[in-house]
Every structure is written in structure tokens, then in C-alpha cells.
């Protein structure tokens, strides 16, 4: 393993040892272990969460994060973890390497940083202007941190920052770089590899990093590239892994990678949102150029279920980038242009719509009776969850952000262009 120090505030301090076998993602009110939280669907069990904040208001701490990255933070065991791509002087310029970083959740102090990969520089720079070399959110368990950089590699670290394994054998031709995050399903780390040609879904052994299976997408879409994150769901007592991609969404057997069903949506491509699952329905958006929100019944789906298992669709206000959120009987989506739509989750009947200012990439989250939205300028909107629109606060951190919030009891962790913030209550003893 190669370890060097990132410039400025990044210092290696960890001295703990961790167990050698994978364990389930951590999941409590003070944990946010993967993209979109404990269930992967943006829901927190926290009884308290901040409503108002600003650069000098209700901020417990603010820590600089050198380099560039739009991975969302994950939180567990009193620590915060994220990834970044940094070069000389802590910038994203010059030769870029890929790092995992751990901070103390109470103080924001960097506890350790580990250089995970030194990738081919041409491959690093083949990305969209809104993407980064470190856009995939890590997965945290009681003893492992899994970091994923798409075609640049995947790795597991112990919680002291030591690399346990690296996997660089899964290669594909990306378009705009990588964006999707992995999902830990049992003993497998599963992610999509939807590049410019021959897209597929892959699974790694979480303990060793060995490739367990890879399943071709066989998409009819002319543009096969997408960036979505898988979601594991229970259908009739059986686990399925749902993976949206260009032209269709499919359910896969996590043990073998076998495609069990699919629902097509034409030429939809560059699919980013992670699905949500509630009331026996999958909620997902079909991507560019004209997104459609689909509610799909996975129960009983076999083969091509496009004509039989679509419950309802919503065309106006469907997102291209932010993921859907289901709270109680309502589903919430925010379009990339800032139009929020609330609809009945079972029927698709509209409850309300409201336009928020700015463009949106971050996925909304729910905590303590409230729905949290964030635009690309770093402005957070707090809305009361319910059948009528009621905005509670508008909070501007004054720094751009494309990452989604992490939520713990009494606090939000927000990654902006140059910093990681903890807004809300400071932990006891701080």
C-alpha cells in the first residue's frame, strides 16, 4: 500500500485495528452509511434536525477538504468519511490521485487520509464539468469503508485507513466520468458500469475484492451510458437488486447476476437518480432527454414487464439528476430546474408543486417531519412534509454544492466546493 500525506490539514493519526470480514452497513439515528442513508432512500430516523443555518449561523464546525470531489459524506461511529481527488498543493490540478478521508464527527478534525489510487491521468480527466474523479459515495460498515471510483478502481479499507484490497480489473469506456455509487448486498459490492459501449452490472466479493459476476445490459438505447446507484429490495421474501440504466430498469439476482425482469423506457439515457421503494412500488426516473417518473410493481414481474407492471407515470417535473423521496403516502421529486412535485405515492395523483430557485443535482432527504432540498449554489430549502406546501426555511452557505446531505441526530453534514460542514447541534463534550 502506498501512503503519503495530503497537504495542509490532512494528517495521519489513526491507530485502530479492524476485523477482516465484511459486516452489514451501520444503521442508527447517528449513522448515514451509504448514498441516501441507512435504507439508501434518503430517510433518517433522527428525531431532531436543524432548520436554519448559514455561514456563521448554527454551524458546529467547518473543515477544508483539499482537492475535488462530489461524493456525499457517510457517517458512523462518531466519524465522517468521504473521498477526494487531489494533486500537488491539495488542488485538483496536476497529477491527480484518489483519496479516502476520515474526520472526527464531533470536531471536524482530520483523523486520517489514505491515497488509494494513482490512476491514468487521461482517464481521470474524461468527465463532465459537473462531475469529479471522486463522485461515488462510499459504503460504511462496522469494520470496512468501501470506496469506488468507477472505471478507475474500487477498494476496501479498514477503519484505521489501511487498504485491505484494491480492484482495478473492471474496465469500461466511461462517458463524462463515473457518478454511480456501489451498494453492499450481503457479501457482494454491486455497481453499474454503464459506459459508452457494452454496459454491464458487476459484483465484487466484499471480503476479497474478487469479481463474482458481471451481467451485460443488452440495452436497446442508442446512448448506453448512465450513472445510477443500485438499490436492494425485498420482493416476496427474496432480495432483488434494482439497477436503472439507459433504456430500461431491471431487477437482478444478487447471487448470480441473472436479470429477472425489466421495464423499458425508450431512449432514456444518462440515468442518475437512485430508485426508491415503498408501498410495493419502485419509483425511478428515466433520465435524459425527457425524463419520466415511473412507479413500477416488481411483485410478479418476469421478463419484459413494460406492459404489465407499470402502475403509473409522471412526466411533468420529473428529475434527471436528483433521486425521488417517499415519505408516508407521498412521493417527492425535484426537477433539475427546481420544480418540486408532491404526489400520492400509490396513484400518482398530484398534491402540490412549487418552484425553488436555482438548478438542482443533490437528492432530497427526510428527517424530523421535514424534507430537505439543496440547490447547486449551496442553498438549502426546508419544507414541511405533507399534502400542502409549507416552506420553513431557506439557508445559504455561500458555496456551491452538488453533493447530497448526510443526516444524524440533530445535525446535517454538507459537502460544498471547498469544505465539509456540520450544521446543527455540536456533540456533547465538544
In helices, the fraction of residues equals under 10%
Average pLDDT: 91
The CATH class turns out to be Mainly Beta
Task: Examine the coordinates and then state which fold CATH places here, giving the name of the CATH topology.
Answer: Methylamine Dehydrogenase, Chain H
CATH architecture: 7 Propeller
SSE layout and pairing:
Elements: E1 59-64, E2 74-76, E3 79-86, E4 97-104, E5 110-117, H1 121-125, E6 139-140, E7 145-148, E8 154-157, E9 163-167, E10 183-185, E11 188-193, E12 200-205, E13 211-216, E14 231-235, E15 238-245, E16 248-252, E17 259-264, E18 276-278, E19 281-285, E20 293-296, E21 303-304, E22 310-314, E23 325-327, E24 330-334, E25 339-344, E26 350-355, E27 365-367, E28 370-374, E29 379-384, E30 391-396, E31 406-408, E32 411-415, E33 419-424
Parallel strand pairs: 17-21
Antiparallel strand pairs: 1-33, 2-3, 3-4, 4-5, 6-7, 7-8, 8-9, 10-11, 11-12, 12-13, 14-15, 15-16, 16-17, 18-19, 19-20, 20-22, 23-24, 24-25, 25-26, 27-28, 28-29, 29-30, 31-32, 32-33
Put the structure in a nutshell.
The protein has 430 residues and is mainly beta. Helix content is 1%, strand content 39%.
Describe the structure in your own words.
The chain is mainly β and 430 residues long. The protein has a single domain (59-424), classed as Methylamine Dehydrogenase, Chain H (7 Propeller). Helices cover 1% and strands 39% of the residues. A five-stranded mixed beta sheet has the order 14-15-16-17-21, with no helix packed on it. A four-stranded antiparallel beta sheet has the order 1-33-32-31, with no helix packed on it. Strands 2-3-4-5 form a four-stranded antiparallel beta sheet, with no helix packed on it. A hairpin with a 4-residue loop joins β24 (330-334) and β25. Mean pLDDT is 91; it is low at 1-24.
Amino acid at each position: 500500500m502506498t501512503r503519503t500525506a495530503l497537504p495542509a490539514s490532512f494528517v495521519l493519526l489513526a491507530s485502530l485495528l479492524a476485523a477482516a470480514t465484511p459486516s452489514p452497513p451501520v444503521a442508527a439515528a447517528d449513522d448515514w452509511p451509504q448514498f441516501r442513508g441507512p435504507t439508501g432512500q434518503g430517510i433518517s430516523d433522527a428525531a431532531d434536525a436543524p432548520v436554519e443555518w448559514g455561514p456563521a449561523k448554527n454551524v458546529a464546525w467547518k473543515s477544508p477538504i483539499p482537492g475535488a470531489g462530489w461524493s456525499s459524506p457517510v457517517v458512523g461511529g462518531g466519524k465522517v468519511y468521504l473521498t477526494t481527488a487531489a494533486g500537488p498543493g491539495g488542488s485538483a490540478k496536476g497529477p491527480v490521485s484518489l483519496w479516502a478521508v476520515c474526520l472526527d464527527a464531533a470536531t471536524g478534525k482530520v483523523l486520517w487520509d489514505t491515497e488509494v489510487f494513482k490512476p491514468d491521468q487521461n482517464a481521470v480527466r474524461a468527465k463532465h464539468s459537473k462531475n469529479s474523479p471522486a463522485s461515488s459515495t462510499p459504503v460504511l460498515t462496522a469494520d470496512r469503508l468501501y470506496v469506488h471510483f468507477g472505471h478507475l478502481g474500487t477498494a476496501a479499507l479498514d477503519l484505521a485507513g489501511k487498504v485491505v484490497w484494491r480492484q482495478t480489473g473492471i474496465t469500461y469506456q466511461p462517458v463524462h466520468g463515473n457518478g454511480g455509487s456501489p451498494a453492499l448486498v450481503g457479501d457482494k459490492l454491486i455497481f453499474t458500469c454503464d459506459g459508452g459501449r457494452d454496459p454491464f452490472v458487476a459484483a465484487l466479493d466484499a471480503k476479497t475484492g474478487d469479481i463474482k459476476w458481471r451481467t451485460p445490459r443488452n440495452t436497446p438505447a442508442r446512448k448506453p451510458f448512465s450513472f445510477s446507484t443500485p438499490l436492494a429490495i425485498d420482493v416476496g421474501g427474496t432480495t432483488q437488486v434494482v439497477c436503472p440504466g439507459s433504456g430500461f430498469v431491471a431487477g437482478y439476482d444478487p447471487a448470480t447476476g441473472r436479470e429477472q425482469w425489466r421495464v423499458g423506457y425508450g431512449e432514456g439515457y444518462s440515468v442518475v437518480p437512485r430508485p426508491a421503494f415503498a408501498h410495493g412500488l419502485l419509483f425511478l426516473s428515466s433520465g435524459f432527454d425527457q425524463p419520466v417518473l415511473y412507479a413500477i410493481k416488481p411483485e410478479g414481474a418476469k421478463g419484459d414487464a413494460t406492459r404489465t407492471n407499470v402502475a403509473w407515470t409522471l412526466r411533468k417535473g420529473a428529475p434527471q439528476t436528483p433521486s425521488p423521496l417517499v415519505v408516508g403516502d407521498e412521493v417527492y421529486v425535484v426537477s433539475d430546474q427546481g420544480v418540486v412535485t408532491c404526489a400520492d405515492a400509490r396513484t400518482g395523483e398530484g398534491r402540490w408543486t412549487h418552484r425553488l430557485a436555482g438548478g438542482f443535482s443533490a437528492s432530497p432527504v427526510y428527517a424530523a417531519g421535514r424534507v430537505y432540498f439543496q440547490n447547486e449554489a449551496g442553498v438549502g430549502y426546508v419544507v414541511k412534509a405533507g399534502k400542502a406546501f409549507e416552506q420553513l426555511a431557506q439557508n445559504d452557505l455561500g458555496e456551491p454544492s452538488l453533493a447530497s446531505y448526510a443526516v444524524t441526530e440533530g445535525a446535517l453534514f454538507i459537502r460544498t466546493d471547498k469544505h465539509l460542514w456540520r450544521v446543527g447541534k455540536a456533540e456533547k463534550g465538544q
